[in-house]
């Protein structure tokens, strides 16, 4: 489970006991992490496009997707989704 999955899981548990306009108790770290992830999501997709445009490759090795900048490793994941989440959560 990625950091993004864990964060979403923690935030989704708040929906169970609270109304949409209610005031659930949350931890500031989760709010900050969620805001950070949202702020990085679109730039990460732009970054992926820029990396591919400049010649970066996505390769599949041992059932994982790896993003390389030339010979340099950028990030990886067991799915393309996870690889993109790791690109979001690592400040490349």
What does this structure look like?
- There is one protein chain.
- The chain has three helices and three strands; from the N terminus they run H-H-E-E-E-H.
- It has 92 residues and is an alpha+beta fold.
- A three-stranded antiparallel beta sheet has the order 1-2-3, covered by helices on one side.
- A hairpin with a 2-residue loop joins strand 2 and strand 3.
- The mean pLDDT is 80.
What can be said about this structure in brief?
The chain has helices spanning 3-17, 28-53, 80-89, and strands at residues 57-61, 64-69, 72-77. It is of the alpha+beta class and 92 residues long. Helix 1 (3-17) packs across helix 2 (28-53) and helix 2 packs across helix 3 (80-89).
Topology:
Layout lengths: L2 H15 L10 H26 L3 E5 L2 E6 L2 E6 L2 H10 L3
Antiparallel strand pairs: 1-2, 2-3
Helix pairs in contact: 1-2, 2-3
């Amino acid at each position: 489970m990625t950091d993004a999955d864990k964060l979403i899981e923690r935030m989704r548990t708040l929906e169970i006991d609270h109304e949409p306009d209610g005031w659930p108790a949350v931890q500031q770290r989760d709010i900050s992490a969620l805001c950070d992830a949202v702020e990085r999501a679109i730039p990460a997709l732009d970054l992926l496009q820029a990396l591919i445009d400049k010649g970066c490759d996505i390769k599949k090795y041992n059932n994982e997707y790896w993003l390389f900048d030339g010979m340099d490793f950028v990030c990886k994941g067991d799915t393309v989704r996870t690889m993109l989440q790791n690109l979001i959560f690592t400040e490349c």
